[in-house]
């Protein structure tokens, strides 16, 4: 799979400074929200720095956990639906100095529907949530029990977007979680639409141009993280 990803044309877009999961100099730690079916794309698109992932005990989660460990990304087994029980304490202890990646629609769906686990964890840890969006020009779909994993075909073009951080108030009451569930869901949906627009050239942004937040669009060679503020040519 690593050889496959070396053939891809990968472009990373970050909407705020310092939020790239591939940036070793990031001063803040985030919770990255990635849909289950897109999980493979960011895992192989660069070298992750100080990142731990939450994966379920379900069969699909076991496959993803194996891929993550192969890429030297530590894994905590659990699910967003049970994040308020056993997995929460382990997560807090394990990721004190690390980013955390969560699939908010796991472990059994519905596909691409946000659960309350991520805003709950953000509220209890004080970390901002970074929503994400992805698009791929050509892919296979590995059949899962409830969600098909997207596997890009050789030489495909891949767009990855890290959205502006969403801050959830500390120690939020559970009755207030739904508004942040909706906010993160909306951000994820919008970023997926934006990634599709970038993929098909519907959003006119010259290479190296800046978006409304002032962060440069960063094309990155497969497997090689860029420093933010730089751009490099992708063959």
UniProtKB/TrEMBL annotation:
MF terms (GO), sorted A to Z: acyltransferase activity
Region (Disordered): 199-235
A matching Pfam family: DUF374
Residue span, DUF374 domain: 51-110
Organism domain of life: Bacteria
UniProt keyword terms in alphabetical order: Acyltransferase, Transferase
InterPro entries per the UniProt record, alphabetical: DUF374
Protein's UniProt name: Lysophospholipid acyltransferase family protein
């Amino acid at each position: 799979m690593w050889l496959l990803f070396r053939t891809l044309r990968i472009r990373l877009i970050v909407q705020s400074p310092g939020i790239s999961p591939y940036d070793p100099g990031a001063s803040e730690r985030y919770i990255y929200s990635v849909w289950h079916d897109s999980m493979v794309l960011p895992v192989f698109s660069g070298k992750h720095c100080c990142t731990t992932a939450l994966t379920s005990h379900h069969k699909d989660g076991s496959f993803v956990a194996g891929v993550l460990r192969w890429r030297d990304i530590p894994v905590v087994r659990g699910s967003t639906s049970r994040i308020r029980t056993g997995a929460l304490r382990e997560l807090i202890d394990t990721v004190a100095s690390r980013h955390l990646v969560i699939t908010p629609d796991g472990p059994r769906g519905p596909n691409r529907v946000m659960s309350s686990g991520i805003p709950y964890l953000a509220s209890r840890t004080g970390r901002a949530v970074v929503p994400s969006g992805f698009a791929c020009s050509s892919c296979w779909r590995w059949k899962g029990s409830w969600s098909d994993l997207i596997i890009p075909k050789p030489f495909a073009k891949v767009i990855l977007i890290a959205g502006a951080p969403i801050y959830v108030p500390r120690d939020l009451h559970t009755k207030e979680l739904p508004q942040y569930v909706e906010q993160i869901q909306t951000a994820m949906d919008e970023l997926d639409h934006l990634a599709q627009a970038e993929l098909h050239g519907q959003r006119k942004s010259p290479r190296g141009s800046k978006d409304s937040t002032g962060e440069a669009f960063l094309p990155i060679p497969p497997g090689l993280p860029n420093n933010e503020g730089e751009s490099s040519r992708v063959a």
